[in-house]
Structure formats: structure tokens, C-alpha cells
Batch of 2 targets.
Target 1
Amino acid sequence: MAKVLVVTSGKGGVGKTTSTAALGAALAQGGQSVVVVDFDVGLRNLDLVMGAERRVVFDLINVVQGVAKLPQALIRDKRLENLWLLPASQTRDKDALTDEGVGRVIAELSTRFDWILCDSPAGIERGATLAMRYADQAVIITNPEVSSVRDSDRIIGMLDSKTVKAERGERVEKHVLITRYDPARAARGEMLGIDDILEILATPLLGIIPESQDVLRASNVGSPVTLNNAESPPARAYFDAARRLRGEEVAMVVPSERKGFMDRILGRRAA
Amino acid sequence: MDVRADPTRQLVRLRGRSYVAFVFSPVVPIVEWLAEIDATLARSPGFFVGKPIVLDLAAVDLSGSAIAHLVGSLQQRSIRVLGIEGVDEDRLAADMPPLLTGGRACVITRTEPPPKAGPADKPKPNSLLLESPVRSGQSVVFTDGDVTVLGSVGSGAEIVAGGSIHVYGTLRGRAMAGVNGNPAARIYCQKIEAELLAIDGYYQTAEEIDVSLRNRPAQAWLQGDTMKITPLN
């Protein structure tokens, strides 16, 4: 039986799609069969980040409405044979999704995959609630800033009340993934600290992804960062997060600024 | 039981009316009978409190002092004797309950349910306990009494209580206590970073809360129509 995981945040632009692609690819590289599902109907991006935009024929809406069969809409990744994409429709809007239709698609996907990663749209409306609806686990993407943390708090509240698991009296297993963490700015006290974020959200930490040009470079070439440059700091952080999702104990590394030579000799300015 | 007023004096209009009372019929030995009463009281203390009680002494032959002693013993058990029947009037002293006559048996309609039925209509809980954090966007409204939150109240969350509000985490959202017009309600929190505090309609926003209080345990209460916020330690 597949694990259904929703990647969500409330706020936009924090890295949900990037993280879905990176975690999906990392899990697939670990030998799991993975499908990433784009729920951002009308504003799809996951196909671009996965580099599959030119192979989209059918999409989630077509499958939900019964126009296409699931195997027709699934796109296999060119680099990893056990990584699949179910794209969203760009021309429709989120009202085209139905609770019952999404449930049917998730049920069908769970017979074929180990992991179903649902890339939630931003916001708290229909698309976001349906993306989390059938989730067993949730990864809440948070940037170290107050607006993102408050939106995450709101989303956690919805995960505890609006999901099928919550309505059955069970709990969605929740993890916080902090992205765009800038060690230099953190050192200057310009960002919310990790401890503050975890204290506010009262949810266990899955990982800390450092802010990096590697992420942008990877999405520009249509590749999850964990595939594009597996040795880069963000990729390594995503690999660790993926291993934690599979239940492994991996020591948490808080990214720190690597001091260059000039910093070392001119690091401290006298008053 | 009938109460008959003496009709000779017409200055005050008197009317007869019959009421339902519990009748105690003591049997000898009186000591054992009293032990029986004690056992009943042990099962449901206060069962006879406020109930009209009549002593039927027809089955026993007691002297005036014995009757006085029995009435006194019942009084010690908080059982007030309304009247006595089944005895010669001359055995009753002036300070004793009056003699009643003409009593008729009837079915006692219980005005309160038997003790074992008590838990069925438990009084509504007057406090609400929340064991998980209250998240942004959630609104908890409990107008019947106090609200206790073991976790934090997130920024953008809201607690509305008829009584006081207790937050054992950080209060970052809004807390409104005493909404039913209870100026004695208070707001307590382990760490105060509230967006808004209100008691009985009087409120303060985050800007008005003294910066020195931030991140400390604090309580808010009403003094007249001003809100006081003071540290708890």
C-alpha cells in the first residue's frame, strides 16, 4: 500500500514544487517507486521542474473526469525509470477537481506505487484541500520568515481537521521542511531561527534546505536538484530528508556559513 | 395530611389545604430504627433535607420525653419534623411539632430523580481543555466557562471564552475572556505575544501591551474599566 504524502505550505513561492520534485527523485533514487502528482490545476509547474513539459498529453483533470485512463496520463521520467509524473491541467481551474474523483485516482495510484507525492497549490482553497484530503503524511514547507510560518501554522490546523484521516479520528503524520535557509543571514539575525519556527509550529523537523543557486539552476534545466547535482548542499539535504521520510535516523545538520580565506583574515572589524 | 385551621377567629382568613409529606413510622426498638435512617442517609446524604417529614407514632407507645428525644435525634440528622400524628395531643409539649390528623396515603411524586439517576443529567461542563496547539485561522468559542490550552495559540488564531483563558504555551493570537459580561474573567499565559487581549469587551492590542512583558508569563484582568497586564512571576 502506497504512502500518500502531501507537500504543502499555505504560502506561495516557498518551494513546494521544487521540494516535491527533489524528494520524489531522492526517494526514487533510493529504489522506491514514486509518482509525483501536480494538484496546482491552472498554474502547473511540476512538469517544468521535472523536465516533462513537452510530453504532457493527458492530465489529472482528464483522469478525474474519466476522459483518460490513468496509464495514459502518467509520464515516466527519462532519467529514473521508477519515477512518474501525473501532471495538472493548465487550462482548467481547480473547481474541475472533485473529492470523489481525487479519491478514486489516489486509490488507483496506491496499487501501483510505493509513494504518492501530492504537490499542493498555494492557498487554502479547493486545490489545496483536495491535495491534502487523502494524505497519510504531510511535509509542510516553511521559509524562515514570519508570514510563511504563520501560513504553515494555518495549514497544519487544516491537516488536523480537513483530511480523511482527521475525520476518522486518526492523525496525519506531519513534518516541517525548512527551505531557503540562508546561513549568512541567519548568523546576522535577519531570519527567524530554526528553534523559533519549530516552537511556533510544534511539529517535528524533516530537514533544512539551504538557500542555493543550485536549486534555481536545476529547475531551469528541468531537473530535480537531487538529480541535477546530487553533491550540492541542497541536494544532500533533500536526500537526508527523504531517508528520514523512510524512517531512517539521520543526524540533522544546520547549514552554516563556510568561511572563506578573506573572511578569516578580515572577519572581524575593529570598532 | 390535612391541616385544619381553627375557624373561631375570623380576623385572619384561614383556609385549609392538604400537602404531600414523607411519613416516618418509627418502630421499636427506636435505636435500631434510627440506625436504619442513618444507613439511608449514608447512601444519599441530604436526601431528607428540605423535605416535609411527619412522624407517625401509631405503631409505638412513647412517653412525652421519649417523643421529644426522638424529634431531637432526627433534628441532629438535619431532618426537620413538620408534624406528628397517631399520638395523644397531651403527650406533645408546646415546643414540639403540632399534632396532625386526617392524613391520607398517596403516591409520592418525586420532585428530584433518585440518586442513581443523577449522573444521567450531569451538569454541562464549565471548562474546555485543548491539548493540542490552536493553529492560525482556528477559532475556539466556549461561552460556558474557562478555556485551557496546553499548547500555544498561534498568530491569527482566536480563543473566545465566557470565563477565563489559560494558555500554557505562548499566546500569539487573540484571547477574549468573559464575553458574556463577566468582568472577573482573566487571561493567563506562559508567554505573552498576543495580538489582542479582551475581557468583557475591554480590549488592548499588541501595540498597547508593554514591551517589557513580552515573552514572559503574564496575566490580564480588569480593574474598573482599565485592563491591567502584569507579569506572573
Target 2
Amino acid sequence: MQEQPILSVRDLRTYFFLDEGIVRAVDGVSFEVRAGEVVGLVGESGCGKSVTGKSILRIVEPPGRVVGGEILYRPQKVSIQKAQQANGFVDLAKLDPMGREMRSIRGAEIALIPQEPMASFSPVHTIGFQLVEAIRLHQAVDEEEARLIALERLREVGVPSPEQRFHAYSWELSGGLRQRAIIAMALACNPALLIADEPTTAIDVTTQAQVLNLLRSLQRERRMAIIFITHDLGVIAQVASYVVVMYLGCVVERGPVEDIFHSPQHPYTQALLRSIPSLRTPPRSFLPAIEGSIPHPFNRPPGCPFHPRCRSFMPGTCDRQQPTLQPVQGLQWASCFLLHPAPQGR
Amino acid sequence: MGEEPVLVPPGGRAAAEEAAVPLPGVEAKVAEAFYVAPNWKLVWWRFRRHRLALASGAILLLVSVVAAIPGFFATQDPNEAISTELFVPIQAVHLFDGGRLRPYVYGVRGERNPKTLRMEWRIDPSQKIRLRFFGRGYPYSVLGLFQWDRHLLLPEEQSVRVHLLGTDRLGRDQWSRLVYGTQVSLSIGLVAVFLSIFLGILLGGVSGYFGGWVDLVIQRAIEVLQSLPPIPIWMALTAALPRTWSVERVYFAITVILSLIGWTTLAREVRGRFLSLREEDFVVAARLAGCKRRRIIFRHILPTMASHIIAASTLAIPVMIINETFLSFLGLGLRPPAISWGVLLQEAQNLQSIVLAPWLLLPGLAVIITVLCLNVLGDGLRDAADPYH
Amino acid sequence: MPAGTMAQDEKPLLEVRSLKKYFPLRKGFFRRLIGQIRAVDDVSFAIYEGETLGLVGESGCGKTTTARCILRAIDPTAGQILFRTAAGDVVDVATLSEDELRPLRREMQMIFQDPYASLNPRMNLLDIVSEPLIVIEGIKSREERVQRVAQMLEMVGLRPEYMLRYPHAFSGGQRQRIVIARALVLHPRLVVADEPVSALDVSVRAQVLNLMLRLQQELSLTYLFVSHDLSVVKHICNRVAVMYVGKLVELAPTEELFARPLHPYTEALMAAVPIPDPRIRSAMLPLEGEVPNPANPPSGCYFHPRCRYSQPLCREQAPPLQEAQPGHLAACHFAGQLSLRGVSP
């Protein structure tokens, strides 16, 4: 029942060109997103999960640049003649980030729930004004129609008495309501794909549960695809159906959420899952921690990026060659020489 | 005791070891130099990459040397007026003659215009006046320490006078005057800024650290001072200076007047940083470690602000220089026989002298270059001190 | 038997009685007082020697303010903070002056949340870690400082050779080790840790938790562990106190609290924690509404507008914190009468 993906990221590379050198923030990332699927991008700081999300939307700030790979997206509403391929895909990586085509996709087709709830609304305009503005940018509706759509969106995301909130400023709302308003903003134009970049990191755990529930029900009702970016493995387990585990700009493992959490294949995924204290681990015991720290992205180790911290490190192999992502079982893929012996030679 | 789960650190103590923050492709030795580098070194390394600021620094260094020993650079006494050499034009220095370093200038010849009865000077290319480096000229004192009579450039023949930047309406050598004016203008800027820094840090620090009603009083005082229009205040204060005061006393009074207004901005900045630093975790940590107030201020808060203060004061010097120039230009600051850039520009106040002797505007160029360099340097320092803001 | 329950017979190392911290709310040009934020409102608890007491709650519940009051990083509005010194005297930390507090600094120290903000970037490790030695023990000789700091760095898992490096040379996890070294260099008895692992990456978080557990054993430390993360608290604490809008709502030994919570807020809080297991998804029953503004809390029990078990009584009367079961305190009118769901171990 593998249907066609609506987004297929292939060997994406996004580099940052700094004075000190090149940071390969995203270095050969591939995954697919199907309609109605929640794909979780998970990893620690510096793994490139956020940059991947920004690359798809083509909003990477300079000195960062998408330097390679394909971001094949199947537009659901807008028609893009120029890049329209035979199979209905358009390569976002080839579009001009500021161009008309990319702008027509952003918001209307692919929307973003940003990390910083305070910064995503202008403090000098009301929530309603900004919602109407966003709706009229992509839909040919008049002021009154847009207002009705906006109110409908606010109601959908569970904002109580939306008529009042419509005239509120973002700083008048509490954290939870603001987060809901941002979701309403992202949903304003009925996007087919939603990129949620750490949407719950800044909020409390009870509010987080509300927001996660909301996202889950919205996704179910609309059969929307979501790319959910977070560092929190608990959140990923609760919302994602497919998980992409990243480390230092590379995908180390990806697969259905059950497989990732119950039969992880890559040593990093295994170690990461073991090292988190959960409500279910025995209290006051030593956690099997991953040794060492995440290398600075300037100093990506040669070969497998995880090898200096890996317990199964094989000298001569892991530090010389970089493993590639290969299928393990079913839909689960991993990039590790333990699972796929390195090709001889070299 | 109850049953505690057995605690065995996996991998032992060494396993906890983490590698230090690695650096892009440098040797371990270089990296170690970075790791043990105190903050001022990091600031310097960041500053070094800022080409324009570095160039400005070099120019300012040169200007400072000029300001320190103007006598060495001057070709004659700046106050010596020669009535037969009024409005002599620029005699440009030619460094090379026939491929060799033999500086010379062309001579000038004056002719009285029979209609206007004015002297008109013409460069005479047939007449080469040879110059020499480090010749003996009039005696001057070096920083008030000792007397010297060597000069950078002098005509080979003692009896000949050259005017590298022309002369003014009284026949005084403008190059020599500009050089002496540099000393006065730059030092007024520096001293005024130092006074402002002192007042700013003292009052801003007191205000920021102690807070409460002390803060309230100082802040209101600053607001009152800042709401006074500066120009009339300066005018009033300088006009109040007795005419009988010596040049030195007026000079000192001007710096005090300038810094009286100038310290408020700096004090605000210092106070703001004090307020935010006081709440910083590392300052709280120092307090919880048992540090006394004095140690917290001098070991933790002030060193953290040092680079900002330096950057802020570098940016404040040009303001002071401009203010001094402006006051003197209006005739309210330094008065002849004192020489400053403002006093020199006063000579270029009327249209006649600009038309007849455009070189009298050159001190303005000196002001522009110095102020521009100080601003670029200050910006560079600020960026280096705080790369994230 | 968990260490917490049996320790009850001993005298507490620290006893907080009716601690209050109100922040004035001012408005306008004349800074008129228009109200008060009751950040900490009548909080009482005790910490026993050798245990780890967890203080959990959502942002704004007053847990950090409580921790900072105990160390007098901020001055409490009212209440007693009774600390039993090594000499055996009981002193009220809340009333001491800055000078009188100084000798006590040797016995109580703090670990901060943000390892980037809590180290002075202008000082190297030697100066940072040895500062308490200089100001409290008056150690002047460099050799002695070097020796003590080396010993301390080794203890927290950093190489003594790093002593002359500055904080910018270290990653977040390492910096937190430095913070721990500074806190422990005077061999304190009580360590207040304010969200010590919240700013760290998942893989580094486990290292620091392990380090804290090991050091507690080696140096027989007592921790007050402040955190918003229930998983971490459950992992490291003997007893846990739950705060909501400036008040303590429940306090119990860890396993007891997580298995059988007595306050509906504790239940809701535990249910909201996402479990890293995709098979257990239905468990998330989100709490409605949001944390009330501490400047304007609801009447009666502060939790009643969000509580699914709320009764008319809850709106009218604030429930006191009472011992509902031995060693298990809860501030709920119906503590013990409701069947609340905990987390099965």
C-alpha cells in the first residue's frame, strides 16, 4: 500500500559558508513524506534537523545555501509550469528562494510552525489582521470572506471565543493560546504539508500535551502530512508514524516509529534510546550514557560521523569510509557498517 | 540504610571524559593557544580580521605620533607670521628626483596684481628647493621632557622657507599649524573622553549596582542633563570663561565642559550593563561562593564590561573632537593664539579666503579623516568585543 | 525501603517553614503598587541528610524562586529557612545578613541551569573553581589552589591539564561539569541544583545525571533538585515535591508519588509527559486550560478551574497540605478518596 510520496528529499546538502570554514549542516539527507503521514525528524543539537526543514521551505539564512540534492515536491493546488515534470514533481531545490513559484508554494502548499512563538507574530498588528493578510496572499477572496476563514481556523485550533481573540495582539495571549494562533496561521491556507520545527519546546508539559493532541487530530481530519522536528524522543514516539534519526547532518537511521523504538538498528539510535531517563526506567540507577560530546560541525570526524562515540567502532572501517543509508528490514533503513559490510578495497 | 541500587559508573571515570570543543582543521598546538586565550586575546583575534578597522587603527597611530611630537613634524614655528608671505599656495612635496629619494619642492614667485593690488603667487618650476630629512631647525620640546631641534623635513638651506600646505592671511605656515592643532584637538578629545569614562563608570556603576533611590537620583540627574540643549549650554559656559585666562586654563576648562555633557550617555550604558550583569548567573554564582561586593564588581562585573567600555569610548572621541572643532569654529572654544582644528577652520570662515586660498579648508579634511577612522575603529572594536550583538 | 522514608526519624538538614516570596507589581510613572505576584506562597518542606528532594512544576510555579531563596540568592518575603550546620547549630538562613551568610556558603552551594551563563568568560578554570577557596578559605598560595582544583576536576571527569583553559574551550556538558566542580570544591553538604540538565543535549544529559549520582555517593551530598522534567526527577530523586502556582500541592517518596498520586494536578502532570514508546499513546489525556496568573490566582484551590474532580468546596476553600498517608502529603480536599492514575513502573 505504498502510495506516491508528496515530498521526496534526495541527498539534500545545505552548507554554511563561514569565515572560519564550511559547516556541512545537512550533508546527504534523504527521506520521503506521504500524504497523511507524520514524519519525525529527531536528533540532538547540530544534527541539521532544523536546517533540513528550512531547506525544504528554502528559507535558509545566508551564509547558508542549499548546495546539492533534490527536494521533489508534488504540488497539490498551485500549478507550476516551468518546473513541472512528467511525474508531477517540482524540484524545490532548483527554484529561486525569493521567486514567485517558491512564494506561491510557501504558506499555500507547505506551511511552517516556527520554533519561537513570540517572534512569529508582529506585535503591532492584531492576530486577525495577520491571519487575513496570510489568507488573502494565497487565496482570491475578499476581506470579509478572509475574515470568516480566519475565524474558522481559530475555532478549529481550539481558541476560545475567536471573535474576541481576532482583535487581540500576540503579546496579549498566553503561551498556549499563542501557540494555537500560530497553528491557525500555518493552517490558514490549507497546506498539504506542515513543517513543525520544535513547536512545543518553549511551552510547558501540560500545554505541550494539548498542542500535540491538537496537531494529531488536525492531521487526522485533514489527512495533512507533517514533518515534525524535535529533540524530544518522547514527543516523537507520541506523534510520528515514521522517524528519521539524524546525527551531524546525516541520516543514521529511519523507519516506522514502532521499529525505531522497539528494534533500533543503528548504534546511535540504540544508545540514545537507552540513555534517556523515562518514567519507566529504574530510579537512581546509572544511565547507559553515550560517551563524549557531539563534535563541533567544523570538525566532522572522517568516515561514519558517530564512530568516535560508538561502542561498536571497527577501526580501519568506520573511521575511513562513510556508510550509506541502506534498507534493513521492511521500511527501516540504517547507515552502519555493522549492518552492511563496507565494500572491499581502498 | 535502605537498599540503594548499586551504583557502578559504566566505563569508569575516564569514560566521562569529553573532548574539548574542536576547531576547524588546526593543529593541537594552535587549538590549545585558543583554549587558554583570555578574552582580550579573542577580541584581538576577531578584531584582526576586520581589515578596515585595522587600517583605521594604523592611520590613527600615525596621527597620534604627530599629536605627541608635533614639533618634529612642523617645518617652522606655527605662530611665526611673515607679512611678506601671505596666502602662499601649497608647495607639494616631490619625494623622488631622477629615480632617487631626493625630496624637493618648487619655489614660488609672487607678483603684485596691478589692478587688485594683491600678491599673486605662482609656482616656479625652474626653481627646485631641496629638502632634507632630520635637519636641524627651530628648537621645540618633546612631550615637555627635553629640547630637540631635529625635524622630519626641512629645506637644505636654512634661509629658505617652504610652506607645504601654504600660508594663511597672516603668513603663518599652515602645515606647522595643522600639526600643532592635531595635538590640541586630539588631546582634548582624549582627555574629555577619559573624564567622561571616569564619571560615567563611577556614576553609572553606582547607579546600576546599588539601584534603589541612588539609581533614581542619578537617573533623573542624567535625564535633566540630557534634556538641556547642549549648544546654548556650551555657549553660556564658554562665554563665562574669563577672557583673562591663559590658553592652558581655557583649554582645560573646555575639556571639562565637553565631558560634563558627554558622560551621561556612557553612564547610561554602564548602568544598563551593570543591571543586566548583576542578574547574570555567573555573578550570582560569585555571590553564592561568598565573594564580597568589591570583588564582585572588580573581578566579575567590570572586566566583563571592559571591552564594551573601550569600544564605546572610542566612538565617543570623535564626538568630542567634533564638538571642540565646532565650538572653536564659532569662536566660543579655544581662541588664538591657541591652535586647534576648530581655530584653524575659523580662518576659512569667509568666502574670500575660500576663493583665494582654498587650502585653508584642509584642516577640515584632517577632522574628517580622524573622525572617520575613529568611528570605523570603534565599530570594529565593538564587533570584536561582542560578536553576537 | 527508599532512603527518604526512613530518614524521617532523623533531624532534617534543611527545613523550610512557610516560605513566601512576593514580587511587587508596579505600574505607571510613579511606580504605583498595583498588586503582588505570589511567586512562592507559604511553602514548607524538609530535606534530610543524604537524600535528593525533587521540586517539580511548570514554568512560573515558583520552584526556581524557592531554590534561590534557600541560598539567599534572592531575599524571601517571609518564612524561615532552618539549616543545620556541620557544627550542629540550627540557623535561620532567611534572617542572616550577607556577612553572616558567608561562613554558611561553605555548606550550601548551587548548580545552575545554563552552563553558558553561569561561568565568567573572563576567568580560566583555575580561577573559576578556586574562587570559593580564595574567598571562603582564604587560600592564597597558587600551588595549593592548583592542587585542590586538579583534584576537583578529576573528580568531575575533566583533565586537570585543562585548568588554564577558559570556558569557551568547552562544550555544554563539560561546562556543566565545571559548574559542578565549583559548587563542590568547598565540600558543601547541601547542593541546590536548578534544572541542571535542562539545557543539555539528550546524550550528554545522561552523563551529567550519572556524575551527580556518583558524586552524591562519594561525598555524601544532599540535593535539592529543581526540574520541570518529571522523567529526570523520577530518575534521580528520593522524594518529590510538586508545586503549582507558588504552592506545594503534593510531597511523597518518589515511587509512591508516581505509583499512587493523591493530587489531581500530579496525575495530570504525569499523564502529560510524552512516553518514549509509540505503543503507549492513548495515555495522553491533556489537562484543559492553562496555569493561572500568580498575580491573580483563582479562589479556593488554585487548581480547581482545571481539575476534572472539582467540587463546589474546591472553589470556596483552599485545601491545606496535609499528611494523607504516612510520609505522603497532599493539598487536596479529596486526597485519598479519588482513584488517580499513576505510572506503572
